[in-house]
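Quick entry between incubations.
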Amino acid sequence: MEHTQFEAQYFDGLTSQAQIVEVRFHVQQKLLYLKFEDQKIEQWSFEAIQVQEGPKHLELRNGSTAAAFLRIEVSQKQKNELVKVLAKNNLHFQFMQLGLFKVLFVAGLLFFGLIAAYFWGLPPLAERAVSFLPTTVDDHIGDSFFSTMVPAESIDQKRSKALNAFAAELQLYNKRPLHLNVVRSDEVNAFAMPNGEIVVYTGLLDQLETPAQLVALIGHEVSHINERHSMKLLSRNLAGYMIISLLIGDVSGVAAVLTDNAQQVHQLSYARAHEQQADELGLQILLENHQDPKAMLQLFKKLKATGVEAIPELLSSHPLPNSRIQHINALILKRKALIVPNPDLEMWFERLKK
Amino acid sequence: METNDLQAQTNESYQLEFKGDGKEFFGILLVNWILTILTLGFYYPWARAKQLQYIYSHTTLNNESFSFLGTGAEIFKGFIKLIGIYLMVMIAFFLFVRFAEAPILGAVLLYLVIFAFIPFIIHGSFRYRMSRTSFRGIRFGYRGDRKELTVQFFKDLLFTVLTLGIYSSWLAMNLRTYTHRHIRFGDVEFSNEASGSEYFLLNFKGNILTFITLGIYSFWWQKDIFNYYIDNMKLRKGDQKVIFLSTATGVDFLKLLVSNFFLLVFTLGIGAAWVEMRTLRFMFSHIKMMGNINLNAVSQTEAEYNDAFGDDAVDLFNIDLI
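Done. Structure below.
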């Protein structure tokens, strides 16, 4: 390598005609000498030389935008040696020197690290991030969705008033004002929005038999709002997409589709954790308000019997798994319930049913 | 026939080839991917430059490589500029919606602004990419006029809207011919004879036959489009010229696209590197050039790209002549 000499083609950047030159690498001086046919000699410093690898040759330029260049036919071994000397400061070339096997290993490590971060590191971090967000953000997002999802004319004003009066009798541990709406629809559904709006469809309301069942429903929905579940989901999705786009880089569309589905499956299981938490806190609310905790199970049965999806939640719904029923059942058996009839609740419930 | 004339005086031979190797290219993509992640995405422009360099230097004409001389730093600047513009536009849009309380008007204005940027970006991309492409030490160049392109684009866009999209064939071909006719390779000029009406009929036929044959014709449609693109390209230098001819058939496309599909699916996308290489190999091996321009006697005409040009250096679109 000390005084490697090559015969090379030189293109002067003025015409496309090639000249034959003699090229000498002087590694110690870090200089490259070009000897032209007319015996003229030019020298390029290694620092300035830009290298491009072709299939069986290297292209060397004196500066990155120079049109003139040298084309040297080299073997794979010579190519590696020259690149090692000339592309010392190039991150990419250096990495490539490791060999495909080591690079693959690093890539694999990074890939699984990101996957691990995505499944285990991300959810708690993203959830914590929500606590730094002011609740005005919840309001803003809730407000913008509410008007499009619930047309004003579909709201039953009279029954909504009764529902709000019913909720006012309850201790709900809400940190923000609540606003409940009865919406005319056959759907057996209810949902909560981050801005404190709760929507109960008449399809579900008409099936409720006791005030306690309504307390169970409200308790569940309020817990979604109290725990800022939809904000947590949003935060987590945003962070998830960031990691995914990093993962894919610009590899291919197929990978994008696959990871997109993975994201959805993962999100679903994550939303289930939220549902369970809302069940538990809803049960707590039932107990604190001295209502029959079994009302929660009765509510589940109603939803299951109609064949419609589970206890509803913001923007998505899933089948009601038996595990959720069993979970709540076990909790009820553990807790001591003090049931006290509440005539005010019964009065508002009667009015609501009309 | 022009073709016969040409054949009589065809005294030069040209061989286009793509010599990229799937494994090598995969190595490059892999290193790019690692560095992009470790730098939280900031390496992306350098990764792009690296990828383009590989593709260009493995594309050969008569065994001589093309070169891409762009650098990551240049592409990075272009991206920063675009992101800046994008943020400004979005902020303006949100402020408008917030204070003017006219979301629909706001959205219409937003789309107009985005459309207005398209010709700018096309112009910038061509200008940058061509100035950074060279062959045998001779630079390519793009000499189109931004204002002319913008006026034409908006005229075509208006017709496209008025004809409910039918005119889009003309829009696409007008863009194509305008940009191609302003490309130079030293003192060799590019030209393109594509026309909107031919392109429209080709797609019309493609659409209908694909529908009738339940999608099978789509490979032949793809072939028609490819051939139309290639067959309309020409090079000219004084009275010398080179014409391009595609030799691809529908069956060739069927084999390529079906095998690419399986290669992608069964490798969960990792085969993308190989897919890209074999697609390029396919395309270049099906392009025939005939004519009498001597590739050894092209002279440099395009000035060195310097920072004064930097204003519109963007590398957003993949500028493929094909």
